[in-house]
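Revision sheet: structure tokens.
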Amino acid sequence: MDKIIEFKNVSKNYDSQTHALNDVSVSIDKGEFAFIVGASGAGKSTFLKLIMHEESPSQGTIIVNGTNVSNLKRRKVPYLRRNMGIVFQDFRLIEKMTVYDNVAFAMRAIGSNPSAVKKRVPYILSLVGLSHKAKSRPSELSGGEQQRVSLARALVNNPAIIIADEPTGNIDPEMSYEIIELLSKINEQGTTILVVTHEHDLVRRFNKRVIEIEKGRVVSDTKQNFSNDTSDINEGSDVINDALKPSIDEVITEIKGQAEEIGLASDKED
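Predicted:
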């Protein structure tokens, strides 16, 4: 399996007394789903910032989607991030924009043409079960709905990697399950998923890889050949939006086709 993220002996020091990460070597394969867990201050956020190149390592090498990002030039960073979709704990939606425009904004920001936006955004909103909320403002939505808008925005440019930073931190337990279930369905189509969370009960309900960081070191990693079969989880589940159940796989497949048709998947720097 090809690696999409690789840390080789990576350390990050903010000063002589603060060692956020210490000699971390870990890799994520293309198409994997992994939870990143650990206490507050363990180094989880630094781990993500290094992947997104918000920070540079003090030592070691980081490879993301075939690119050495350890000392990536500033002008190259936007192209790196085109391959990523980011889901934030606090949603980070633009209140003056509708749900549709919040999602479309991510496409417009990379120069997608209007016809591509009109094709892509409705499909993504359908995927997350928010077609009926397209004209609503963020303040008119529940916390779970706002998080689904954030997820739609992360998905809309067809990224190779989705990074979710505490995506369930501001929503109720039932909606938390729904968000992780939706991410699992997306992962089944080949998108690499990284989820940072402190909710160990949620992690235990899903048969996914778990990487634990403690005091800047990886202290546990359950990497193995995980099954995508979540029938034991899905059986009898009442918390997943019934409207999503019958159509989610078909919608994702159609989205892939739409992305190829309008050329989004190749909208990257050579």
